[in-house]
Structures are given as structure tokens and as C-alpha cells.
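Q: What does the assembled structure look like for these inputs?
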Amino acid sequence: MSTLTKQTLSHLDWLESEAIHIMREVAGQCSNPVLLFSGGKDSICMLRIAEKAFRPGKFPFPLMHIDTGHNYKEVVEFRDKRAAELGERLIVRSVEDSMKRGTVVLKNENESRNKHQSVTLLEAIEEFGFDACIGGARRDEEKARAKERIMSFRDEFGQWDPKNQRPELWNLYNARSHKGENIRAFPISNWTEMDVWQYIEREKLELPSIYFAHTRPVVMRSGAIVPVNVPLMNGELTNLPKAGEEIIDLQVRFRTVGDISCTAPVESDADNVEKIVLETATTTITERGATRLDDQTSEASMEQRKKEGYF
Amino acid sequence: MSAQHVEDRGLLRFLTCGSVDDGKSTLIGRLLFDTKAILADTLTAIERTSSKRGMTAVDLSLLTDGLQAEREQGITIDVAYRYFSTGTRKYIIADAPGHEQYTRNMVTAASTANLAIILIDARKGVLTQTRRHSYLTKLVGIPHVVVAVNKMDLVDYDQATYDRIVAEYKAFADQIGLTDVRFIPLSALNGDMIVDRGERLNWYDGPTMIDILEAAPAAHTEQAESFRFPVQYVCRPQASDNPELHDYRGFMGRVESGEIKVGDSVTVLPNGLTTKVKDIQLYGESLPKAIHEQSVTLLLEDEIDISRGDMIVSSTEVPAQTKQVEAIVCWLSETPLSPARTYWLRHTTREVKAKVASITHRLDINTLDKEAATTLAMNDIARLTLKLAQPVFADNYTDSRATGAFILIDESTNNTVGAGMITGLNA
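A:
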């Protein structure tokens, strides 16, 4: 184990190469795949990987976004622009259409629509007969993902049965499925948040503006930064402040973008990718911890610990 | 200073073998913690759990604790993948729990690893379990082994205890043919010799665990390997608006072994035609060469009919084309192997029907004894011969991991039921 002699790929090249290989396997093994594209940073990396995997040809799959109707305008506009630039087909299916059909019923108007995306996704899978959905999930995102397969099998109800997952050995992926079943393929499973940002920096990938530091009206709710008066595509404002809340203008950026109702920004002055890479290297909060609004108490206490010099 | 301006020593995938009792989870927790891969909110959650369980110090093994749902439902505990980076190198840990379905989990985790850390409890020394881990490590062809004698704190950091275990393990490693083995004493609990040296193991002057990991070769083998390029996908953009692309034929895949340069002579299997590499492309860029594990698109001098499942190889080192393979197979499924049934065999990008011709013997992985067998149950390992409906283009697993490995798939359920390593090729 002495010296390193044989030439090997750099870590980003290795991750990219693995992701390209996985995408090509999906294209080679599945008859009707689709790539899920939200306009978020992970799926933006996925598009570059798809370009590297299939150009000068067209992508062997369309792009699809499951729109909650509560997405940031900047992200939706970016999504459409990027798909048009690539000259690839973009399918948009909306949670609001599922609500009209009665297949999605919100508990109340303010309930996050995030989890309801899966209903709309399943409806779209059935409508188009997709046998595989390529997604940008990463194993470092949370505990439940650490054991996820690169090719994850879902039954005809779209359910993930941990007892019924296929062992995955070497780089021999098994994407076989029966009619009605579905494979979820995750080419960037082995990437971390840092890898994603380093890749964005290296590839000079364009991102929606809200990933960079900007000033926006927010309120502090149980220690978390909650954006308020956010304009939707149709011009309406959402996330209105509650009575008695003080609106402040804060310089923030988003580490993840998703449904407006459950994505919180972090305070930051990082206005370019290089600064974000630096911030990511020195952050003390996980991506989910910083942005999930449903776990505000632990987030607040963690912030406090950091201020007390815990680490 | 942004991280990519620092020297990039690539990516190392390693496996940790051992049960919870050996301190495996604590070791992983310690690696993640001491390399700052754990962020404050995760640590807070662990602290809370530690104090709930009545512990005074933070229990780092909780970092790798399985899911609540898993424990509640008593379902199979699976291989988990974890990540950390030192700034110069990225690491992927395959963490295979030691309880149930051990062989299956360990073979799965080992299949992508280039280094194995085998944990030994200093109080217990070399156990049956240690032998099993080591044998599987050898079987799956992990080139580098680090034997970590853990819990040195519980034997008063006694050098004689450590030396005795090292001597015993060395004798065993020679017996099974493990060549590159390193030893290190540590206390994962106290963090001695993981990232920091600590002050209690001063008699040990070797590198720390993290130094060993940083110095280990990232490549699976240092030997020169033959060029193997299984074709995954063929790019023919005939309908493109660009007329220059109407005759474009790009063969897309990953260099699974060896390397390739523009101008090299290659042979296409199965048709056996020989041509030269005209261009190596990645996203519109022409590359002078492509190395092991690099995904590229190859353009060839001559127009040859090539499709997915074919293989482009070095003309001077052509692999065997065979409809019969001898292999070591690990059975992964709860449904036993049936010699009466036909399975799908997936080898590189090729899928062929396969049937068991004969089971030579089953191996007892604790004693290495060979036993007669007519079927295989989950976790069994056996040497057997398979008949194939179409040929595969294969090498022995010990010569080339990617072209020597295959999986078996159940035709009716589509489940992956077996993992194979080729030991012999017959045309």
C-alpha cells in the first residue's frame, strides 16, 4: 500500500462518470424512462450529466416536473428556460390538477403540498406509462436515504418496500420491472451537498437566482427564517405573515428549493458559487436541518449551541 | 481557499467488517466526527438520544444507528453508505451490519470496495467471525486489508496483547493468501489512532487510521489491465438538424478495465471485426485517451454494426467468448437456487439465459470445508458451473473485476438472487 502510481479519476470526475454510467444503464435497460427536473440544484446537475451521457444525441427520455403550484417563480421560470435551451421535451403535471380531480385533498389551505406530489407523480407515471423515473436524490440527505439503492424498486402502488429491495453489486444494475411497476434511479446517490456545489462551480452551471444571497421579506417563526409575501406565477402572494409577526428584510439564500410552504432560506451573503462552496465547507448545519420548517425547535437549539461555541 | 484547489487524491471506497460489539459503529462515528463530516444538528440529535439512554458521553455509534422503522419491524438490516471527505480525498464507507444475512450483506458491500477494515476486539482476539470476514474479503477480491485491533483501552493499551493478535492473524492471512495486510491498534471510543494519535499508544509508531486511508491506492489494482469497453448505448442522431451528424455513430460506455488511446486497435465482440479508435469524446470534447472507470463515447474508423451488449476490447488481449462459466456464487435470495430453473445472467451490459450445469461444492465460510450440495440457500457460497444460452465475453474475476463478475436474476420476480465471480472459462 505504498505509493499511488496508477492514474485515477479525480473525485468529481469519478462521481460524474458513475452518474453517466447509471443514466446510460437506465436508457439501455428501460423502455420508457423520464427524468425528474424541478429547476433545483441537484436536478440541474442531472441535466449536465444527461448532456454528457447522450450528446450529440437527444436525451432518450423527456423531462418532467411535478409542480405543486407553490413553487418559487424564479425556479419555475428557470425550469422552462433551461428545458427550452436544451431543446428537450418538458412535461409539467400539477398537484392543483390532482386537487381538482379530487385525488389530492389538503387538510387545510396552508398545508404543505410537498408530500402530495407523490400522488400526482403516480398519476403521471400511469398516464405516460413510464417504467423508470430518474431522480436527483442523494444518500447523504438523511438517514432513510443511506440505505437506498441506486435502482430502487417500487410496486404498482409506487411503494418502497424495504424488504423487497434488490441487492446491488459491482456496477451491475437490475432495472427490470413488470408492467405497472416502476424503477426509481438515482445517479447522484453517492454525491454530497459539497460535491454538488463543487460540480456546479466546475461546470459553471447556471442556477435560479434565489440560490444566491438576496434580500427578501421574512418573519422569524420559532427561530426559523420564514419567507413571507412570496409572489406566485399567477401574481398572487403566498405565505402571508400571521397577525402580530414583524416583517424584516433579511439577506438570505436557499440551500434547497421546493414547495414554498416548507422551504426556508439561511442567512447568507454568499452571492456567487465560490462563496457558497466556502460556506458549505464551513457550515455546521445539515442541508435538511437548515431548511426544514417542520423541525424548528431542534434547529433553533442547534443554532444556539453553535453560538455558544459548541463545536 | 476552495476545496478543489487542494490536491485531489480521488475517491476511496472501503468496507468496515465487524459487529456492533467490535466497535464498528463507534469507529465509523469517530471517522465522521473527527473529519467534521457530522454537522451540529446531527450531533444535537445524537446527544439527546445518548442522554435519553442514560449515557454521559455522546455515543458516536448512534450515528450509524439503523432506522427506527427497521428496528420496529424487525426487517433485514441493510448495507448503508456513508460519506466523508478530508479535503484531499473523498471516502465512501460501505457499512454492512453483522447480524443477519451477514454473507449477503458483506458480499454486496465488498463488491465496490477497494479496502476493508476488519475489526478485532482486543479482549477477544481472532474469532470465527474474523476468519469469515477475512475469507469473504479475499473471495470478493478486496486488494487492501487493515486489521484494526480495537478496544485497546479495555486491555490497558497493552502492547503484548496487540502483538499476540497480530501474530495470530498473520499466520491465518498467509494460509488464505491475503497479501496486503496492515495492522493498527486503536480505541475508537477514545479516538486513539483514528485521526489523532492520542497519548496512550506511544509504543505504536505506524500511521493512524486516517493516514492509512489517505495513502491507500485509489485504483482497484496497480497491475496493467486489458482494455474492456462494454457498450451501453449507441448514439445515432440521424434526425439531427446538423447534417454532419447524420453519419455519426458513437458507442457509449465506461472503460471497465485498462485504458484506450486514439489510434489503438480494437476488436468488437461478438462479431470479431477489428478496427481503430478514431475519436474519444465526452460532451463535444475530444480526449487523447480514456482511463479506467471513465465514461466516454468511442468513434471507430470503420462502420461496424454494434449494439448494446457488445464489447469493444483491445485487439491484442481479447477475452474468452464462452457459453459455459465456472464461478463462485453467493446466493442472495430467500428462495433457494433451483438447478431445474433458468435464470437471467447479467454480465457487463449483456443479459443471457443461464442454467446450473453442476454444483461442484458448497463452502463452509467458517472452516473453508467443501461440502456436496444440490441446492443453495440464502448466504450460501458455492463453486458451480453454469451453461449459457448465448456467449459472454469474460475474464477471470481475479484478472478483471468488472468483466469477471455477474449477477443472477429470477425470471419471474425480476429479483437479483445471486452474485457470481468467474473462476474458469470454457468455450
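The longest strand of chain B covers residues 350-363.
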